[in-house]
Amino acid sequence: MVSFDDAANLGVRTIEATHKVNGKYYKWFLFAGLGLSAYVYSLDGTTTYNYLAFATSSFGHHSLISTIQVAQSIIIAVGKPVIAKFADVRSRGSAYLLALIFYAIGYIVIASAGNTATIAGGIIIYAVGLQLLMQIIIADITTLKWRGLVSSLVSTPFIINAFVGSNISTSILTHSTWRWGYGMFAILVPAALSPLIVTLLWAERRARKSGLITKPDSLPFVRAVMDFTDRLDLFGLVLLGISVTLILLPLTLSQTAEGHWRNASIIAMIIIGGCLLPFFAFWEVKFARYPVVPKRFLSNRTIVLAAFIGAFDFISFYLTYTYLFSFILVVKPWSLLNATYFSQTQSVALTFFGILCGLMMRFVHRYKYILSIGLTIRLIGCGLMIHSRGANASDAEIVWSQLLQGIGGGIAAVASQVGAQASVTHSDVAMATAVVLLITEIGGSIGSSIAGALWMNIMPARMAKHLPFLSQNEQAELFGSIVSVTQYPRGNPIREGVIQAYDDVMRTMTITATVIAVIPLLLSLFMSNYYLGDSQNAVEENDLRDMDSREGDKDNYPIDLDTTVAKK
């Protein structure tokens, strides 16, 4: 038996043992399971996004889309370290099973929701861990030179489902209801993920029976639970989640609250959130035995920069994307199907050029300058959207603004993630990936909250300006539901007034997003530039090829160009 402290890396030791006792067919089964789970995950992403506007509108709360997305992003953010640590302490298979349970329950809650709050609750429950776990498993089994390509290939179904998913969501909204659109995934996801989970659990069981994995000493139940929560730093994660939530949610709720910014509850939320944030930092530095962000990560320039690049990129992205589907439905004379196709433009471009980026890194063996090029393209697309945001732009202009953002975003996402994973040991890869995505998702929640604040605080005034012939109640109805807006045809004075109001708000959002998009580009210039070879990472001697073929191959010598230190 080994000490209980060794359980911290039990999941890592388990996945390494499975590679030793299971043959090459195990990897093929693993890749097949990943492919199937990636497909259903992409089908989810290309359909459910379109239901939220109609789900919230059915309860007269269309403006609360940003509030829901803020809460969702925060839960996703704080949940990623929990799932990553669970995957390290227990195993990859058990972590997948836990994430699946949350996923299914969340969609059941949404499908049966009787109000907007329940929809928000279900969205918060389901959004835990699946994307992160796919990237962790890929990092476990791939070398650095193939990492970018393989991690981007699992997104390939987004290209297919941009069209398949659009037709499905359109048919459901036309012939059924958004409830069935959400509810069907409570059936599809367990069915699609079962092969992957069975493969992982079977391989882990076989590795344990081989004797390569020694279970840690058992502890009394209460102490085991306390030790486990300590390793997860649940107190720190709760502090972080509450503080960020209390700071950001008032931005999206102030306009609907009585007294607006003078509302005592709004003021109290901001003050308490502002006080909890430094308390969280104090807890992490002084008391946390296993901090959310390990201290060794804070001195890792690549991880820090990758996290902030992701955060600012997500702030910029969600500023324009949060209300984009609603905006297009209102300002463009497109059918629901064509509007849904358009909403997937960035996803298709992001996926396709993410794959090209991974292929390029396979032969170039570097990622830093590829990352900078991607962020430059992303900035150009964002800037183009200031002029070509919809109301007065040609169809080609607005589509190209989304294509360019998708091209740049796909390149940047793959390059920054591979860089972060290259800079840590195998035992840290899960947590490093989770920390980068934690900061990135918090950036997404900030972007959604800013979008919500602009929408909630500017839109009513813009509607009053462009629709002076309507009463306040009529304006409020149009503000609360896109269904109420789209019932008026193009050319109708009411529809045209709403279009002008939407256009004014989106202009402010796109200008803000473009300014923020400059920051990640500047940060990318200071990234390390590790050599991407045949190792699992760039800081250990851990060639993943057959041992007989490693001698004399230059891929065994990952180099950080910024330090010019060769690691043999």
TrEMBL record:
Residues 542-557 have a biased composition (Basic and acidic residues). Keywords: Ion transport, Membrane, Transmembrane, Transmembrane helix, Transport. Residues 542-568 are annotated as: Disordered. The keyword Ribosomal protein does not apply. It holds the Pfam family MFS_1. One of its GO terms (molecular function) is transmembrane transporter activity. InterPro entries: MFS, MFS_trans_sf. Its main location: membrane. GO terms for cellular component: plasma membrane. Signal peptide: none annotated. The keyword Protein biosynthesis does not apply. The chain crosses the membrane at residues 25-43, 63-83, 95-113, 119-137, 149-168, 180-203, 232-252, 264-283, 303-329, 341-360, 367-386, 429-455, 511-532. It is found in: Membrane. It is a multi-pass membrane protein. GO terms for biological process: monoatomic ion transport. Belongs to the major facilitator superfamily. This is Major facilitator superfamily (MFS) profile domain-containing protein. It comes from Agaricus bisporus var. burnettii (strain JB137-S8 / ATCC MYA-4627 / FGSC 10392).
